[in-house]
Amino acid sequence: MIVVWDDDQAEIAEIIGSLRSQDTDTRAVEVKAAAGGFPKKLVRSISAFANGTGGIIILGLDEDNGFVTVPDFDATAMADALAGACPGWRMRRPRDPVGSRPDRHC
C-alpha cells in the first residue's frame, strides 16, 4: 500500500529529524522535493523498494536545502499523479498535516 501522508505524524517527524541530522536520505528512506510536479524517477524508486526490503518515500521535502518543506507542495495533486502512474495500487488519500481528514479515501 502507498501512503501519501501517514497517520502517525510523530513517526514521520522522527524520520525527518533523523534525515536532517544525517544530512542525507538513506537506503530505507528516499526524499524527493517534487517541486516541479511528479518526479520522473519516482516510479523507479517505488519499484526498487518493492523489489527489495521496502522503504519510505517522502515527497515535498527539499534534501538540497536541509530537508525543509517545499513551498506550495500540493499533496493531493501528487497523490492523483501517483495514482495515475501506479494504477491498481491501493492508496490512502493525503491528509492535512494539522489533522483534518480528507473528504474521500481510495
Quick structural summary:
The protein is α/β, with parallel strands linked by helices and 106 residues long. It contains three helices and six strands.
Structural commentary:
By secondary structure, the protein is α/β, with parallel strands linked by helices. It has one domain. 32% of the residues lie in helices and 15% in strands. The chain has three helices and six strands. The strands form three sheets. The chain has a two-stranded parallel sheet. Strands 2-3 form a two-stranded parallel sheet. A two-stranded antiparallel ribbon has the order 4-5. The chain starts with a strand and ends in a 14-residue tail after the last strand.
